[in-house]
Amino acid sequence: MSEKICKLDKRTKLNYCGKDKSLKPVIRYPGGKSRVAKNIIKIMPEHSVYDEPFIGGGGLFFAKPLTEKNYINDKNSNLINMYNKIKNISQDELNKCKVKISKPEFKALFKKGKIRSYCEYLKLNKNSYGGMMKSYGYNKRIEKMASLKKNLDHYQEKLKKSKISNKDFKDVMRESDSASTLHYLDPPYHDVKCTRDDKCYGDHSI
What we know:
about 30% helix, two-stranded antiparallel sheet, four-stranded parallel β-sheet, alpha/beta
C-alpha cells in the first residue's frame, strides 16, 4: 500500500495529508472565524481528537488539518443536514443546485418554513447579507459556489472523516472527551437579537 503523501500549506504552515487541505467555509456565518483561522491554528496544542460542538460555518474546521478523530456538531438541523448531504453528494448533483435567485424568489423561499433542503439552505445563505438569511443581498462579483464545486472531493474528505451530529454541545463534548482531545468552543453570542433563519443558532440555551 502506498504511503500517504503530506504537503506543507504555505498559508497555515501546516502539513495536510492525502486529500486533506486548507479550505474556505462552505457558507458565510455570523461570527465566522475564517479570516483569523490561521492565527488560531498556530496556538492550538497538539491533539489527536478534535471536537467543535458549535460548528456553524466551520471556518476553523475546514482550514485546519484533520486529526485521527474529528467531531463536528450544531443544534441547527438545517445546517447539519447540509453538511451530511455534501458529504456524499456527486459532482453532477451539486452542479444542479443553482444558488443564484432573484429577490422575489428569496422572499418566497424565506417564507416557506424552517425545514429546508440543502440547496434551499445554500440559496438563502448565499443570497443574503452576511449569511444572516433574512435580507436579500446578492453580490454579482462573487461566484457563490466556486470553492465547493472545485474542491468537492476535499470537502468530502474532511466531512467523511468526521462524526457529524445534531445534539446538545455537552453531549458531544462528553462523547469526544479524552486526554488528547482539543475542544474548540465558539458558542452563540449571548443575548444577541437573532435575525437569521432558525433563531440564529437553533432554539436552545447554553
